[in-house]
Amino acid sequence: MYTLSMFVKHLRNYSCLIPNKASNRLFSLTFVKQVDACVTNWELSKKYLLLNFSDHEEHKYHYIWLRDHCRCSKCYSKTTHSRTQQTHKIPANIYPLHVSLDNGCLSIEWCDNHISTYSESWLFQNHYNKSLEPFLISDIKCRYWGKEIQTNVPESIHFENVCKEKEDLLKLLENVAIYGFAIVKNTPTTLESVRTISNLIGYPRKTFYGDVWLTTNRSEEDMDHADLAYSNVALPCHTDGTYFLDSPGLQMFHCHEHTGTGGETVLVDGIGAAEKLKLTNPNAVEYLAKTWIPATYYEKDRCSKALGPIIKLNPYTKEIYQNK
């Protein structure tokens, strides 16, 4: 556990980016590995094309799949990176009349007289007969932490630098990916400043709370929503939005005003805790990853419900990437 007590006196100058209370690491920081491979031979069968590549790999491409993934301008939009043809109009028994290879491109003339062309690199990168894990690589490794992080807090980054310098924005994202949280200092005390950082990273998701909103201490009768965040009650460690079908992955907190005592922000490395549990009790992690648990939010005239596992796993690496 780590409290940001060292920042409380100056909290109005800080904006903290916390992936669902530090429980979600940036799963989207994944890169496609570019691999060059040449087609050395091919073989036509009844339903698929078998390609042999220069690295001694061979892969099947079913004719219906190849025809559906034609990259010509009539079937595919390079501007929107999406298919424009209608799959159901392709004959189920489609087959090639002629196949040729020239200058790194494989051309197929189909029985419906359509001609498709695919680059060798595209074919190799998009084969589908094995796990995608070899194509999902990350240059950033998570660092799990406990109370020791109090003496090694990730470097805070100036708001203006994040807005103007790509290197500082990258450093911000790296901190989130590595530690699960990041701190932006000297942030103007406006909602728009939070929205500015959000738009640099992605876009704020709108819910019934809004896209960016204020929480203030009020009595139960005057609270905007039936949520303890709108009260002066101390909140224990928790994750937010479990009652949404897609729980928040990255949250931003910015204190505009702080009077009195208390109000510390408490961070817990939820992923690190789950990884420790996996080492000591892997059956428990497996159970929490497979068992769907209901979560509900109630307030006047509104009810939000969702089902989902407590722990989410990367389907290819089996790494934990979110706690609910």
UniProtKB/TrEMBL annotation:
Pathway: Amine and polyamine biosynthesis; carnitine biosynthesis. It catalyses: N(6),N(6),N(6)-trimethyl-L-lysine + 2-oxoglutarate + O2 = (3S)-3-hydroxy-N(6),N(6),N(6)-trimethyl-L-lysine + succinate + CO2. Its EC number is 1.14.11.8. Residues 156-315 form the TauD/TfdA-like domain. Signal peptide: none annotated. It holds the Pfam family TauD. It comes from the Eukaryota. Keywords: Carnitine biosynthesis, Dioxygenase, Iron, Metal-binding, Oxidoreductase. InterPro entries: AlphaKG_dependent_hydroxylases (IPR050411), GBBH-like_N (IPR010376), GBBH-like_N_sf (IPR038492), TauD-like_sf (IPR042098), TauD/TfdA-like (IPR003819). The keyword Chloroplast does not apply. Residues 46-123 form the Gamma-butyrobetaine hydroxylase-like N-terminal domain. Its cofactor is Fe(2+); L-ascorbate. Converts trimethyllysine (TML) into hydroxytrimethyllysine (HTML). Belongs to the gamma-BBH/TMLD family. This is trimethyllysine dioxygenase. It comes from Hydra vulgaris (Hydra).
